[in-house]
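Hi Y.,

Following your request, here is the sequence exactly as I used it, all 483 residues.
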Amino acid sequence: VTYAHSLLAASTCSRCGPGYKTPLDAMKGPREEIVYLPCIYRNTDIQKPDYLATVDVNPQSPNFCKVIHRLPMPNLKDELHHSGWNACSSCYDDPSKRRNRLILPSLISSRIYVVDVGTDPRAPRLHKVHLIEPIDLFWKCGLANPHTSHCLGSGQIMISTMGDPSGNGKGGFVLLDGETFEVIGNWEQPGEAAPFGYDFWYQPRHNVMISTEWGAPKALGNGFNPADVRAGHYGQRLHVWDWTTHKRIQILDLGEEGAIPLEIRFLHNPAAAEGFVGCALQSTVFRFYKTPKGNWAAEKVIHIPGKKVKGWALPEMPGLITDILISLDDRFLYFSNWLHGDIRQYDITDRRNPRMVGQVFLAGSILKDGPVKVLEDKELDSQPAPRIIKGKRVQGGPQMLQLSLDGKRLYVTTSLYSAWDKQFYPDLVKEGSVMMQIDVDTDKGGLKLNENFLVDFGAEPDGPALAHELRYPGGDCTSDIWL
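Below is the corresponding structure, written out as tokens. Let me know if you'd prefer a different format.
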């Protein structure tokens, strides 16, 4: 049975809708054969539209590690970023639903594209209702800069936003009709939007949704300035929402140690009332949890010490935790340090005391042959060597992560966001990003680079591209939510 056939069987089965009944069922799903990645040209010298790349990751395929299809968007400078589904495991009990449309919000242009991945999964095409115009977000919702897209059990699609139409911070949520893709309106109640927005995750059994904060779009739009943090243009809070009433019921201020909380992940077990959030600026991970009183709290459980350096923008370099994810069995937490250049694996069976069990360096800003000299390092004895795979030197640092359903393969790309790529890793913009694969030891823990796997987006037909988030057609551990 091929991957496509098994997907079709899952989505047309008379007893079930898209996805899997439980996270542990998902772990037994078929091996990934293709991956979708948005590829960005904004902030490069190439005047071409961003596009959705389809990559063959089947080791038995003659096209292994190759881009087999490219779907360009109809506009320039969108900054495609994260993606989501029209339906996922939250709709498992609805046999009328199919996971056949990929929702592609544009972080800067505020356009939202709808891509048909059902007709031919290996050659996606724009859906006939392919575009939600920014004006619909502006006029119907007073929102802009869409980021995270999640499908809901109701069949609707919910997308978090980072700003208002003027580029100020505004953490609201746009609801789309799951069939027509028309903008319905705001999910949050009037006046309830958060001051900043970014990511979110919901857990209906606890009647809760929690959202995070990046910063004001006009502050981060063209690069990072530490003065903007001091001026209050970046966030440091988690916002707790009542899932039923759509009201913001609690604010968890993580303080300076929790500045710029980005990706948030509840445990996959839908009965769990806890999870983790990666905070970029001070390189910390906070655990958030429901207290015996019924409210929510957060505590720091991981801190990556900064390194004292010479030859860099600041005298101390943070790790900059940019992406995190949790394995479907809730055993392991993974995250990337985009500046230090490593990926880490933690055993989180003791939720309050994560234990590092794997680490691998994949480029970054402290390489021994680079311009930065490390003066004081609390973790390493020496600066890491550059990473060269199949003759290609990896530029940038490890960034977006996606784990195979069985937890044995971790895929990694190196682009964070085009304006920050250009600022921190100019050679990444010149030479293009790469996609790598890490082999994971799921028994004792451990990470090892697969030296035979490389997708080089520096070799794209229209010139080097910045590949970002990774999605499998059948769903994955960062897109699916179980009810």
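The longest strand covers residues 125-132.

Thanks again,
Q.
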